[in-house]
Amino acid sequence: xxxxxxxxxxxxxFGGIYWFLFLLGSAEQKGxxxxxLSGGSISREKVQDKYRQYWSFFKKPKEIETTENVPHFVDxxxxxxxxxxxxxxxxxxxxxxxxxxxxxxxxxxxxxQMAVDLIKVGPGSRILDAGCGVGGPMRAIAAHSGxxxxxxxxNEYQVNxxxxxxxxxKLDNLCDVVCGDFLKMPFDEESFDGAYSIEATCHAPKxxxxxxxxxxVLKPGAMYVSYEWVTTELYSSENSEHVDIIHGxxxxxxxxxxxxxxxxxxxxxxxxxxVVMEKDLAKPPAKPWWLRLKMGRIAYWRNHILVSVLAxxxxxxxxxxxxxxxxxxxxDYLTRGGETGIFTPMHxxxxxxxxxxx
Length: 358
Ligand SMILES: C=C(CC[C@@H](C)[C@H]1CC[C@H]2C3=CC[C@H]4[C@H](C)[C@@H](O)CC[C@]4(C)[C@H]3CC[C@]12C)C(C)C
Ligand SMILES: C[S@@+](CC[C@H](N)C(=O)[O-])C[C@H]1O[C@@H](n2cnc3c(N)ncnc32)[C@H](O)[C@@H]1O
Hints:
Elements: H1 3-26, H2 47-56, H3 61-65, H4 70-88, H5 104-118, E1 126-130, H6 136-145, E2 148-153, H7 156-168, E3 175-179, E4 192-198, H8 207-217, E5 218-231, H9 240-252, E6 259-260, H10 261-270, E7 274-280, H11 291-295, H12 297-312, H13 319-340, E8 343-352
Parallel strand pairs: 1-2, 1-4, 2-3, 4-5, 5-6
Antiparallel strand pairs: 5-8, 7-8
The structure holds the ligand C=C(CC[C@@H](C)[C@H]1CC[C@H]2C3=CC[C@H]4[C@H](C)[C@@H](O)CC[C@]4(C)[C@H]3CC[C@]12C)C(C)C and S-adenosylmethionine.
The site of S-adenosylmethionine has 23 residues, from α4, α6 and β2.
Domain SAM-dependent methyltransferase Erg6/SMT-type: 77-354
GO molecular function, one term: 24-methylenesterol C-methyltransferase activity
Family: Belongs to the class I-like SAM-binding methyltransferase superfamily. Erg6/SMT family.
């Protein structure tokens, strides 16, 4: 081979590898590249074991129902998925209705800003984000409202990611992040002017445990809004396809058991809240929230090849391939949940802590 052909071939091969790993790997502006995929706080050699351990929870459903085990199980899940979520979805770990003519990024922001508009807080207020992930919603909400936001997550790795993103976005003056359990919050009572949770309280084995903690830390008169994952009125436990879809969603999303939409306001009232409004934000005229998930299928195939190559080369921990495969299947269950209308990730409830509550 003459030197020119050799040089061109080598340039093509290296250029191709660079394009595959770096350019394709980062897809949109997400804050994570494929070559940096990790198992969160889990050391790389233990990722595969931890994935098996996560899966074994579902073989012993009684254990998932035991409240004390759930935060640990959820923490393991977020160690495993946080990097893949950030890489393939972005810094906001939730869905939002599609908006014709708007990007996913804009539709996500609009859905987040609606939450803080509903609880009517502004500059100088201190508000709680219960289950904050890596803080995508927190930053959008702080920037939009001027309020001080305190995020709470069970996962230490997410705390570090969120703090780093807050600093990079120059919002660390308004946003703080704390590692802790929303079933036993590390906050004083009546210390917040408002609170919200976006697709997070579905991880609580008993919703009353997290709602009563939120009630405790809110000042009288303060408001709380939550976007809940629930089964809708179309779900039937007699229908085996419905049951299969819901089980698929629970297993792929670390859920101790999805609740029915009917339970939400009943539980809010039981812990002392006044229910101001309740609405499934996925209902028409809203456009399908699952479109983004469904449209991404080709990208997920590409991602799967990429993750497998990286694991083969020893760049990504081996278990990342299993985790990615699990998410791949979960995307399908979620899409089917949306298309059949038996599941919604955005059953919104707006509550107020009564002024006379002591
Ligand atoms: C609220 C929760 C998480 C909701 C969503 C943010 C995530 C649910 C399913 C996730 C994904 C599925 C498929 C992945 C794909 C195979 C991969 O290549 C890139 C990332 C995915 C798109 C990933 C992204 C996040 C989700 C959409 C739960 C946990 C309560
Ligand atoms: C799907 S993510 C949503 C994150 C964020 N609300 C967003 O929309 O980007 C769910 C979040 O709830 C948190 N979470 C789940 N169970 C928790 C618990 N018991 N205590 C605190 N946080 C918890 C997880 O750590 C994760 O950050």
